[in-house]
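Q: I have 184 residues here and want to know how they pack in 3D. Can you give me a structure?
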Amino acid sequence: MIAAIRTGDTIASQRLARRYYADLYAYFCSRIGREDAEDLTQVTLLHTVARLDRFREESTFRHYVFSVARRVLFERHRRSQRRLDTEEPRSEPPASQTTPSERMFRAEFREQLIDAIASLHDHYRVVVDLYLRGANNFEIAEALDLEYNTVRSRLSRGLSSVRQQLIPWVQKNRRSQSAAPPSN
């Protein structure tokens, strides 16, 4: 079937879609719910056929299909994070309830945090980024095709590095806040 798809056989492509559709749909439903599972299933099948040259036959074709699915899921997480980055954080009180200096402090802290995460080595940054988006260790392991303990280790080291990078900034701001006159 793979050889037929590589030659452009649309019937073979349809057979492939029928063979893996239900399993892919269930995979996505278990991770993101039904509302987007249909779309991600279709995207995965399209990517699988379009990028069939990447299949090296060193593992099963099913493994290849689900590695494409994990990457599609990871990209969906990245896109949703980009949308969240442009929105105002919901955990903060409305601007009318915070002082300008508090808003400035939070904005600076957010910048420092983003810079600290961006400076991480890729294999730490990806894990920390997914974690901060709300993914748990099992979801991260599945999305990146890593062992659970590898995720735990990279997350621990990545977060530790971020903390170490933020400590000087936090200490500097504590000193400047304690030296500032009290606000009325």
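Q: Anything worth noting?
A: The chain has two domains: 2-83, 93-179. The mean pLDDT is 79.
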